[in-house]
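Objective 1.3, modelling of assemblies. Example input:
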Amino acid sequence: MPRTAFFISDGTGITAESLGRSLLAQFEDVEIRMLTKPYIDTLDKAHSLVAVIEATAVRDGERPIIIDTIVDEEVRAVIREALGFKVDIFSTFLKPLEEELGTHSSYSVGRTHSIGRDDVYMDRIHSVHFALDNDDGARTHQYDKADIILIGVSRCGKTPTSLYLALQFGIRAANYPLTEDDQDEDGTLKLPRVLASHRHKLFGLTIDPRRLAAIRHERRPNSRYSSMDQCMQEVQQAEAMYRQMHIPFIDTTRFSVEEISTRMIAETGLHRRFSPH
Amino acid sequence: MPRTAFFISDGTGITAESLGRSLLAQFEDVEIRMLTKPYIDTLDKAHSLVAVIEATAVRDGERPIIIDTIVDEEVRAVIREALGFKVDIFSTFLKPLEEELGTHSSYSVGRTHSIGRDDVYMDRIHSVHFALDNDDGARTHQYDKADIILIGVSRCGKTPTSLYLALQFGIRAANYPLTEDDQDEDGTLKLPRVLASHRHKLFGLTIDPRRLAAIRHERRPNSRYSSMDQCMQEVQQAEAMYRQMHIPFIDTTRFSVEEISTRMIAETGLHRRFSPH
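Predicted structure (tokens):
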């Protein structure tokens, strides 16, 4: 029977879940079922959740782990009574921070925050639409407005990465697919002409040809496009060009979209227009 | 002179930053400059960062706040020596969790984790491409494969929300724009026929007409499309239809994309295909 962990918040639950998952990921041997419970912002919801937690404790035969970031004093008091092992992030760290900063936190006076901000909202909308308008080499004339231009072979992860950069950090990321159209007569990939004047903005993606073939296979099964030969050849050409032109690049095979994006930012010093929550 | 906070990690820094921002957001009166330092995964990088932290302490005239999730023991030891006020998330909570779970954490043996997982990667790629293929009513025939279909007037936030649902949770979100084409002769908005058989999947978005006008104005200045009259009329019609057809809806004006998405999931019980980091 696995243990259960509850990530509880009166907001989105993103912070409680993010921290909770990071902490529990350190216990690989223990099977833990993780449940996020956001928007627990009334006494009624808190009482219902306590009932769920206690039923879980009975079923599991072990008390659940409770990781919460509830701000409201009364709601917190209800959850605190639940039968569980509590990791109380805010109250653990806010007291010492209050002393260090010489002031009271709004937490200690029970005020909640909304993470929606006008400027962030507008930056996000613009960045997302910029990424979409400049996806897959669609509108090359906006490259002068791009913060970064991702290049790579078809289905190596350019689109999810450019959208993540837009949503999480407000970065305007264009992307351009490297295809056989950009090859020399002898089969060598050249830097496409439309990118030549933006070389300092280029960032390459590469991928294990086997994974590429698997991804392409789902799109066009048993095609030349998804064949191992074709994938190997395209990836080799792309990597050779990155090296020859000194274009920084990252292998997306081993990394999540979060890792690819944050590594790019760390490597290029890209300016984040805003920060996530 | 503002205080400075460093969010330090040997990974993406997402957890340290997310928690750090949540904690520091509770101190609205204090001006705090926040810097995220991801991928501090060698002794060299750690020593360089310590130099930066100490220079910052001198400049600010106050010791910086250091919030870290470094796993590597030696790297951690270097950062621990820096002049700063430390919020050590992992070591604070892992010890009690080890006792509760009756086992050692990989943290205490210095093992790092990568957040990239094959199944998550594939789910993400598919969900993102699903959102793009089904953006703005483009390919209505995939609605049977959608987990949710967002509806709303043009530029009310459908696209960023559907992409966020795809990237963060692997949810397949289509979206469909409500336009004048879907109005009756008397100007009443009807539920578009292509959506009629998917009513249980519909989720409406609405927005303050003033914000809508501002967003549209940046796209097509001084047009009928961006006029207050037009925006008010479209929003009123959309909301009337949501109410009449009992379609759940959310006002995107006051909320971030994170909040809109997590509220939708909480309200509909949508199944998350994976969880962020």
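Chain A touches chain B through 77 residues (CB under 8 Å).
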